[in-house]
Amino acid sequence: MGAAMVVAAPGVAGAAEPCQLGWSNVGPRTCAMTDVGMAPVWTLGNGVCAGMLVTSGNAFDGPLAGYSDARGAVHSIELRISQGYSPLGEWGSTSLACDVTAIIDWRNLDTGQSGTTSRFIPATNTSTRPMFVYVGTGPGRVQLTMRTDHPNLPVTTEVFVP
Question: DSSP letter at 99?
Fold first, then answer.
């Protein structure tokens, strides 16, 4: 009788293999990724409602596998946008949440390409139920600016897309 142990190490995807972004928080990840973090975007919505959009995400080389909302996406950014703040986490009420449209302006600093993506983010999309937005920027250094369709304080960051 004997025992065996197998250890799987993360790798980099071959050209024909799908990227397993989000496949498992303990399993192998087969795509190159860069974390994206942005300061909150402060905004007004629904008349006089004070709101805060919180954004994080990943820049990846892809292609994303079939389970993804952006199947086949390559050299893109996946943003997770949520509303407001809950001091008690998912068990407490959320404040600073208003219905707004998030507008993401991007410019690839290496290729000169640019574009704008927008998505309506209801006040119900809190940290436990974020909205996913995919931005196809191509590889390189990308400048992202996030704003809303209401009075706001826009936020800009730079990320490297593999």
Answer: -
